[in-house]
Amino acid sequence: MRREDRSITKSRNPRTNEGSRQRKPTKEERVERVSQANEQPPIGIDLGTTYSVVATLDAQGRPLTIQNAEGDTTTPSVVLFDPSEIIVGREAVKLAAHEPDAVAAYAKRDIGASRFGRALRGTHLPPEVVQSFVLSKLRADAELKVGPIRDVVITVPAYFNEPRRKATQDAGRLAHLNVLDIINEPTAAAIAHGVAEGFLTGEGEAKSAETVLVYDLGGGTFDVTLMRLEGHDYTALGTAGDVFLGGLDWDRRIIDFVAERFAEEHGGIDPREDEAALIRLAKEAEDAKKTLTAREEIKITFEHDGKLIRTPLSRKQFELITSDLVERTRFTCRQVLREANLEWKDISRLLLVGGSSRMPMVTAMLAKESGLDPDRSLAADEAVAHGAAIYAGFLTSGHEDAVKASAVGRITNVSSHDLGVMGTEPATGRPRRRIIIPRNTQLPAKKGGRFATQKDNQKSVVVTVVEGGDDSGKNSTPIGVCKVTDLPANLPAHTPVDVVFKYEENGRITVRAHLPKAGRDASLEITRDSGLSEEDLENWAERIRENRLLPEPGDVAEIAEEVDEEELAAVFDDADDAEDDVFEADVVDEDEEEDIFEAVDEPTVEVPKTKRPGSRTKQRQPAEESEADAFDFADANEPEDAEASSNAFGFLEDESNDKDAGSFAGFDDADDDQQIDPGDDSQLGDFLKGLP
Fold first, then answer.
1. Which in 204, 307, 435, 523 has the greatest CB count within 10 A?
2. Rounded to whole angstroms, how far apart are CA atoms 225 and 185?
3. Are residues 468 and 476 in contact, defined by beta-carbon separation less than 8 angstroms?
4. Which helix (H) or strand (E) segment is 292 a member of?
5. By mean pLDDT, which of 154-158, 489-493, 515-519, 669-673 is the weakest?
6. Beta bridge partner(s), residue 64
7. What does the alpha-carbon distance between residue 49 and residue 250 come to, in Å, rounded to a whole number?
8. pLDDT mean over 577-606
9. Domains defined along the chain, listed by start
10. pLDDT higher than 70, residue 526
């Protein structure tokens, strides 16, 4: 590859807003901008954990994968930070074992955290910066084939939360891309399938409707989404997933298998303890996994420290040591069916996408579980990018013919996580999460709840907005704070507080809090504002342009801006020891909900800065509830000392978990169960305990 092709440190500075934070354009405004200056074909990008793909549409509206500069359809999502240049893709993989402290891989698993999981030449970088170099490589290579590229659609796992989605969008900005939209990977695959199957014929007659389960097992993430395909409408019925499960976890088991045998034969020497050896072993493991897809047995040869091992590994052995990983995907399939009130007999097609879905153990498990013949008709590595390109064509009005040919009409997604608020349960004084919009609610959605103030003469109300988590809110992701201040004097305790959530299809969330008796209200608009601030983005863009990512000796690398912990924190007074008390806040009925909607007019807006927690979430469905005034919101000025008042509503502690997931081989010293992201369902542990 030419030197100028692989280096992206000399690219121009991305367009940024000047001065203070400005309102971000809506999807409609971005699309209008494209229609006014449409000089490129539709572009879809599957930004993968291990490999990434770019696709476009031909003149007939058919999706087409764009090869990279090396002539490959997939590009390794690996970045090597050489002192003189940034190297991305195949060459970065080749050099990784020689410069292990300079290589970044699997950054998608860290996206949404404050920094990449490991230092690069002693410097910590935000995952957005790492991902931006992958996107820049994809862009530069695609431009060799289709000309200048600016506007794209990027895919993410359906189970990504808002901080992860916003961080992906920011990576696009740093790569000088205008991200038209973020689309879920299984939805993109379903679109590609619908187009391939011709769900709207040339005569405009729709084929019979299908209920499709999309099983998407990629290199680092896993999603299951139920889609209803009818004519040119694509409707998500439910989604579930695991953002810490993918093909590299199967690779890890092979690495452990080989390393343990190496230690047995060579006096306890463990190649996993040498970073360069681990990188080479990771490549051998990936190759072995792929070979076992076609062969019943292989022999793995590995050399380290002047010693050699040649060990056989059969497909049966491989399936045995990874059986729990397959079972985790089975559990997720059952979960999404259960939550959609469907059974396998209701599914007309089982669609497999993602390179790791090729493993025979996956198709065998699914065939036995579902009674269906898994559909592998789509190119597993390319289907998601194809769907993204089709959707980009749908968004860009300058390609109406392509859109008509693609047969894409209305796309309806669902919320992938619960959205709710944090308050205090008076009986215990402990924080409790209250769900307003449950996960798998079709978007757009508008729902409300009625709560109460906590004490007499309360001067303000604080509504902490959270995503996911369990009933205590301990594992929730805080995404904003809505404050109602300057309440009138002598306001009695248990004064009603009406809270309304509006969740748009583009991810914009509006929260409104209203006290009808006090005549006070406020609102919060969450537009993927967590993560890097506008100032952060400008600073990192400048450092990328000037090639100042790796500091000179004595300098300290800048890390993403820290959060004001008193804005988005909560006190959990030993919540693990608390009794599971009945959660008493009522969900308002439809008539009452309408009253709430009418009561909340044009409120003031207060948007705090937020931090990207890296913690993974577990979630339960809300318990039966009663007595709307039993769930309280506290005064913004309430003291933080929980012992000062049994009903004190503290601030939510930041429980961000910036996990070290960013090494090239994706390994740390943690046990495998620490890598499990059970999504928002605590039943996974019980499910796994029952396995043989």
1. 435
2. 9
3. yes
4. none
5. 669-673
6. 56
7. 14
8. 37
9. 3-198+380-410 (3.30.420.40), 247-321 (3.90.640.10), 419-644 (2.60.34.10)
10. yes
- Contact status, residue 385 vs residue 65, Cβ threshold 8 Å: yes
Helix (H, G, I), strand (E, B) or coil at 34: helix
Residue 262 has pLDDT above 80, yes or no: yes
Distance of CA 247 to the CA centre of its chain: 17
Q: Which helix (H) or strand (E) holds 346?
A: none
* Distance separating alpha carbons of residues 213 and 349, to the nearest angstrom: 6
Distance from chain centroid for Cα 226: 18
Beta carbons of 256 and 237 less than 8 angstroms apart = no
Placement of tokens 């898994």 in the chain: 374
- What region does 324 belong to: left with phi over 0, alpha with psi -120 to 50, or beta? alpha
Q: Which amino acid is at 356?
A: S
First CA to last CA across the chain, in angstroms?
Answer: 50
What residue type is 326 in one-letter code? V
Q: Which two tokens stand for residue 101?
A: 């402290």
Alpha-carbon dihedral sign for residues 107, 51, 357, 64: positive
User: Considering only CA atoms, which of 284, 294, 290 is closest in space to residue 261?
Assistant: 284
Instruction: Give the span between the Cα atoms of 272 and 487, in whole angstroms.
Output: 61
Instruction: Name the DSSP letter for residue 102.
Output: G
What is the rounded average pLDDT of the residues 96-124? 91
Burial (CB < 10 A; 0-12, 13-18, 19+), residue 525, is middle
pLDDT value of residue 630: 43
Q: Who contacts 222 (Cβ-Cβ below 8 Å, separation ≥6)?
A: 157, 216, 241, 242, 243, 245, 246, 328, 329, 332, 354
Facing residues of 200 across strands?
Answer: 206
Distance of CA 624 to CAs 420, 446, 528, 587, Å? 16, 21, 32, 10
Percent helix / strand / coil, the chain, rounded to 5? 30, 25, 45
DSSP per-residue letters across 649-663: --PBPP--------S
Tell me the C-alpha distance between 95 and 494, whole Å: 64
* 342 burial via Cβ count (<10 Å: 0-12, 13-18, 19+): middle
Q: In whole angstroms, give the CA distance from residue 70 to residue 51.
A: 14
Which percentage of the chain shows pLDDT scores above 90?
A: 45
319/314 Cα distance (integer angstroms): 9
For 324, phi then psi, to 5°, come to -65, -30
Which residue(s) pair with 447 in the sheet?
Answer: 501
